[in-house]
Specification:
alpha+beta; Trna Endonuclease, Chain: A, domain 1; 6 strands; globular
Length: 146
């Protein structure tokens, strides 16, 4: 796991955000930290928190010419295992459907795509541990066609 030399949490001052469930704020902070981490690695963030009736894509990014759909998981402890355990089969299927919707909505065909998982653990006063799994699960090209 990598650790950033700084803690890039956003401080939420907007009242509409601070009235949210603390778990929601924690998740948003985790997504912000993951976004900063990926930018630091050279990714270009294309979209964040894309919602549809099926669910939500946390981050969509470009890693060179590859379009990357990123699932972010924030954990206070390592009780539930690492990133590889954070995205079970049902969640993978949902992410694939969401990615297919995104590709259809943006008329994207024949582009290399992959699914990454970023897990942030230990998100208290000390810097979190960050685990980034590129190509976290395999997807057939037919699954992403529209």
């Amino acid at each position: 796991m990598a650790s950033l030399p700084y803690w890039p949490w956003r401080i939420f001052t907007d009242e509409s955000v601070t009235t949210l469930d603390p778990r929601k704020i924690f998740g948003q902070a985790g997504e912000s930290a993951a976004e900063e981490y990926l930018r630091h690695k050279g990714y270009r963030i294309v979209a964040r928190n894309l919602r549809s009736p099926v669910g939500e894509l946390d981050l969509v990014a470009e890693d060179g010419r590859v379009l990357v759909f990123v699932e972010v998981k924030a954990r206070r402890t390592d009780t539930f295992g690492g990133a590889i355990h954070a995205v079970h089969q049902r969640k993978q299927e949902k992410l694939i459907r969401l990615a297919a919707q995104y590709l259809a909505r943006h008329h994207i065909k024949d582009r290399l795509c992959r699914f990454d998982v970023v897990l942030l653990q230990g998100m208290d006063a000390v810097a979190p541990q960050i685990e980034h799994i590129q190509n976290a699960f395999e997807v057939s090209g037919d699954d992403l066609r529209w």
